[in-house]
Amino acid sequence: MSQTVASLLYQDGTSLLYISSLFLFILALKWLLFKRKANQQYMLPPSPFTLPIIGNLHQLGLLPHRSLALLAQRYGSVMLLHLGNKRTLVVSSASAAEEIMKTHDACFASRPDLRVMTKLSYDAEDAAIAPYGERWRYMRSLLVQHILSPKRVQSYRAIREEATLLMMRKIEGSMGDPVDLSELLSLLPIGILCKVALGKNYCEGSGGKFRELLSELSALSGAFDIGDSIPWLGWLNNFNGINSRVEKVFRSMDKIFSEIIEDHIAARSLARSDEQMDAVDILLEIERKSSTDGPVLTRKQIKGLMLDMFLGGTESTWTTMEWAMTELVRHPEIMKKAQREIRSIVGNKDEVVVTAEDIAQMDYLKAVIKETYRFHPPGPFLLPRESLQHVKVKGYDIPSKTRVWVNAWAIGRDPCSWDSPELFDPERFLRADSVASTRDFKGMSFELIPFGAGRRGCPAISYASQIVELGLASLLHKFDWSLPGGIMVENLDATECFGTILSRKYPLKLVAIPATAK
Q: Which residue ranges run through the membrane (predicted)?
């Protein structure tokens, strides 16, 4: 009897297992058929194989711009990733970037809601991170019309020259010892922006600490946040240090901004002309008038714009100069050509300051800067965009709410757009028979987009490029440069440190010898 019962139980258990397996098989088959039907309805871009839950997150690596450039060689310049449960379009060619930032610019003009970026930008109450709409238009117009207009940027000339001269004097004081050029170059745009935006250098005496704060802001803006890709795992940020770091750096920066604003309010009684007003003065005046006339500008939005100025106008600028000097040291013959041009135009007098009129004649220097933007774009990926509606790109269907990463680093090294893309060659921009000779970095040539393009292009192109030109021209005019301690050029460590800005992992330390000493 017991054997009969056991046999029945065994048979029933086997049947139950069989039925359950069949049920799961049918469910899986229906899901596959549904997915196949969806893919037939939409011609989605090619995509690498995805893993459960994490999707393609494991394929980003420590240097995502390089990892995704390699993937694009296999899957194409328009590639769809699934980062957790978030669709992300990765664009790696000039023609695809043009469709995103020109042909369908309005469709891709918004930003995704990324938790860390939103928090640091005062809940996206700024111009860089704000979603597309009337508020963003208003915030951007404040920067373009009142702070970064051609007339305003020209008015900052004396500030640029004074800060550059100060850097030169610090280098002269090195007396042939190795100079931490990374630190000095970082203090140059910070000092300029403090004068431009705040009216005085609030960083004097603590510039290194302020630089560390900006670097942490930039690092966190580009840090991987698991909650952005897999929302139900966002709680992990309480244990991996992301949340505490974000809160700490936000409180520190907010405290500085609040003190600066209070200082400016206290000084309102001082009569100053429009030319004497700094950026915070201008924004506070707009805030005062906005309560009765036109759109309202809040204190929170003023801080958001201040953050935009410091994040957008400092690290990307000093990183470009840092990479340019790295490549010039690695290519001494290119450095010598640049120095000959600069010294023939400016002369060799000790106290001569390189002027904007001098720089206008420096074609080779400008080619070096262009090549640096191509070879080392400040941001390896442009700030992420998000599609507002369904659209086709390169013949593929891109659903609404798809995030977009434009790989500026990969585009700058695309062999379809550049001859010998892995060679640092400024003269490609000077050869009459080279297609590169017609390209610029101001948003019209999609092969070279360090500042982006379209509605979301960086409004500070002229402001930043004038600092880079003056800084590099001055360094190359006044000094000859070499590696310290007999280090060979081929042993110079140029390891990258990934973030919103792609900087050097290790400081650039060089020996400066005054040119007149030779």
A: 15-34
- Burial status of residue 303 (CB atoms within 10 A of its CB: 0-12, 13-18, 19 or more): buried
Show binding-site residues. 458
Architecture per CATH, 42-517: Orthogonal Bundle (1.10)
Exposure letters 93-111 (e unless 16+ CB within 10 A, then b):
bbbbbbbbbeebbebbbbb
At a CB cut-off of 8 Å and minimum separation 6, what does 434 contact?
419, 428
Q: Report phi then psi at 110, rounded to 5.
A: -100, 170
C-alpha to C-alpha distance for 362 and 469, rounded to whole angstroms:
9
pLDDT tens for 290-314 read 866 678 899 999 999 999 999 999 9
Rounded distance, CA 220 to CA 114, Å? 11
Closest C-alpha among 52, 68, 72 to residue 60: 68
CB neighbours (10 Å) of residue 291?
9
DSSP string, 74-120: HH-SEEEEEETTEEEEEE-SHHHHHIIIIITTTTT-B----HHHHHH
Backbone φ/ψ region at 76: left (φ over 0), alpha (ψ -120 to 50), beta: left
pLDDT in tens, 34-46: 455 555 578 999 9
Q: pTM of this prediction? A: 0.90
Strand arrangement of the beta sheet that strand 86-91 belongs to: 78-83, 86-91, 403-406, 385-386
Strands 86-91, 403-406: pairing kind: parallel
In three-state secondary structure terms, 43 is coil
**Percentage, residues of the chain above pLDDT 90:** 78
